[in-house]
């Protein structure tokens, strides 16, 4: 069996000490795989990512039970900068890029942990190979990019530290179908280059297309899991998430 890169075990999360957003959630991401977490609005997908990236505290949430292990280490015992250095990087929802900085400056900001200028330049070149449109627009300010290009920049910035695991929060949100396809292709390329991906998606057909395994999250609990092919052929998933019946 491959080594688990990320293991979430029996995770419970509450907001403001009251609202239970996740109850007993368990999942794993094996090294070298793409795992999708599917679910509709309010199911708890963003909460799950916030727990893994340890940004819950900033929005009034807290882990109230269970464990999250990355590379065999209990994340509760490590600080957030350890996680980034160990290769766990989140690309936030809503393309939070620096609007007033150029594309190149945004990428440089993402590469702050790079050993030196040369390592940063190499990382920038890799990102430009993956997203040629960003190379073309390298001197343009982030705020002037289209929605799809901003999503690419957010992903590119996350890749600047050459993470082992990239956490993607709804990269397809608000994008036209053709761009969703393109983002799916890019996730496949990122995977092919050796980076594992945990992908949170409301767009189940995109999620199941790129993922090896997937989990369905409903009102804070996992209600189905399996290989992407298994889930795509399950009647209930087809009816409720893929819009075919
Ligand atoms: P979406 O696709 O709309 O982002 P989601 O699946 O990511 O949905 P979450 O945002 O994780 O869902 O929300 C899960 C539950 O937690 C919801 O009931 C939501 O109202 C609640 N919740 C989320 N953030 C907070 C917060 N900061 N304070 C209180 N409750 C919150």
From TrEMBL:
Coiled-coil intervals, chain numbering: none
Boundaries of every ABC transporter domain copy: 6-244
One record GO biological process: L-amino acid transport
Taxon lineage: Bacteria, Bacillati, Actinomycetota, Actinomycetes, Geodermatophilales
Keywords: Amino-acid transport, ATP-binding, Nucleotide-binding, Transport
Transmembrane among keywords: no
GO molecular function: ATP binding; ATP hydrolysis activity; branched-chain amino acid transmembrane transporter activity
Parent sequence residues shown: 1 to 245 of 527
Superkingdom in the source lineage: Bacteria
Family: Belongs to the ABC transporter superfamily.
Protein name from the UniProt record: Branched-chain amino acid transport system ATP-binding protein
Keyword ATP-binding: yes
């Amino acid at each position: 069996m491959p080594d688990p890169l990320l293991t979430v075990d029996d995770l419970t999360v509450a907001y403001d000490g009251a609202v239970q957003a996740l109850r007993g959630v368990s999942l794993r991401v094996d090294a070298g795989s793409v795992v999708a977490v599917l679910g509709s609005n309010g199911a708890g997908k963003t909460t799950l990512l916030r727990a893994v990236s340890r940004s819950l505290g900033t929005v009034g949430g807290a882990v109230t039970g269970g464990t999250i292990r990355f590379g065999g280490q209990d994340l509760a015992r490590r600080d957030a900068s350890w996680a980034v250095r160990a290769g766990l990087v989140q690309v936030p929802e809503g393309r939070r890029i620096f609007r007033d900085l150029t594309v190149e400056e945004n990428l440089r900001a993402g590469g702050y942990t790079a050993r030196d200028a040369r390592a940063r330049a190499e990382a920038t070149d890799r990102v430009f190979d993956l997203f040629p449109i960003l190379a073309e627009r390298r001197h343009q300010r982030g705020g002037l990019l289209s929605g799809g290009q901003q999503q690419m920049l957010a992903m590119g910035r996350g890749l600047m530290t050459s993470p082992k695991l990239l956490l993607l929060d709804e990269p397809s949100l608000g994008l036209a179908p053709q761009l969703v396809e393109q983002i799916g292709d890019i996730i496949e390329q990122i995977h092919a280059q050796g980076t594992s991906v945990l992908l949170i998606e409301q767009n189940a057909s995109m999620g199941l297309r790129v993922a090896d395994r997937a989990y369905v999250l409903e009102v804070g609990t996992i209600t189905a899991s399996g290989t992407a092919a298994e889930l795509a052929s399950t009647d209930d998933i087809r009816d409720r998430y893929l819009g075919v019946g």
